[in-house]
């Protein structure tokens, strides 16, 4: 196993999370509570990484931050090295690609929060009751929830039918078998 690639992925994930969490919170809160004329355009621009294929988005980022672009030259004069094909460039691309996954759920959560203080108190009480019920259920489940989480993480893998024969969802689809 190539540990350098694994460690690079972990480092990239940690830095992406460290950047996206505060940025996502600030932008999502601003979008949830602010009302301005261009709000749908800003939301659409932030959702572009969801609609564009990754190769197209990568190409656009290479063009926008390459050595021939104004942004690329600005970065190179400020830091003395190009942004393209460096860890910083990879981090910038990862942050841009994951922006909608950070902003949209947080924006929806801020949007559902009532402005009335009494409503907020009720929501806090409900959240506390839900947390306590969830913790009690997790204790009752014992160690069984860890393997269950792993199975849920890979639901498209090979499954077994009731009579024990292995089922491949894609391969058996043309035979008329249901996915169990």
Structural category: mainly alpha
Radius of gyration of CA atoms, rounded to a whole number: 23 Å
* Mean pLDDT over the full residue set: 77
- Please indicate the percent range of residues in DSSP E strands (runs of 2 or more): under 5%
What is the secondary structure topology, with strand pairs?
Blueprint: H1 3-33, H2 39-46, H3 48-51, H4 54-65, H5 70-79, H6 87-111, H7 117-141, H8 145-153, E1 159-160, E2 166-167
Antiparallel strand pairs: 1-2
At a glance:
69% of the residues lie in helices and 2% in strands.
List its salient traits.
two-stranded antiparallel ribbon; mainly alpha; 180 residues; MetI-like fold; 2 domains
Give an account of the 3D structure.
The chain has helices at 3-33, 39-46, 48-51, 54-65, 70-79, 87-111, 117-141, 145-153; strands at 159-160, 166-167. It is mostly helical and 180 residues long. It folds into two domains: 1-113, Orthogonal Bundle (MetI-like fold), CATH 1.10.3720.10; 116-161. It has a two-stranded antiparallel sheet with strand order 1-2. The model is unreliable at 140-145 and 147-162 (pLDDT under 50).
């Amino acid at each position: 196993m190539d540990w350098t690639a694994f460690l690079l992925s972990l480092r990239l994930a940690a830095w992406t999370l460290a950047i996206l969490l505060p940025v996502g919170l600030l932008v999502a809160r601003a979008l949830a509570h602010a009302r301005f004329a261009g709000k749908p355009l800003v939301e659409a621009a932030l959702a572009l990484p969801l609609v564009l294929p990754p190769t197209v988005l990568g190409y656009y980022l290479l063009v926008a931050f390459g050595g021939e672009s104004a942004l690329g030259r600005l970065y190179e004069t400020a830091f003395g090295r190009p942004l393209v094909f460096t860890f910083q460039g990879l981090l910038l691309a990862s942050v841009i690609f994951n922006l909608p996954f950070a902003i949209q759920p947080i924006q929806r959560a801020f949007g559902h929060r009532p402005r009335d203080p009494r409503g907020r108190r009720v929501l806090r009480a409900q959240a506390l009751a839900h947390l306590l019920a969830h913790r009690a259920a997790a204790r009752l489940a014992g160690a069984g929830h860890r393997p269950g989480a792993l199975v849920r993480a890979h639901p498209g893998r090979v499954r077994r039918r009731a009579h024990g024969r292995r089922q491949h969802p894609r391969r058996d689809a043309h035979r008329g078998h249901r996915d169990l």
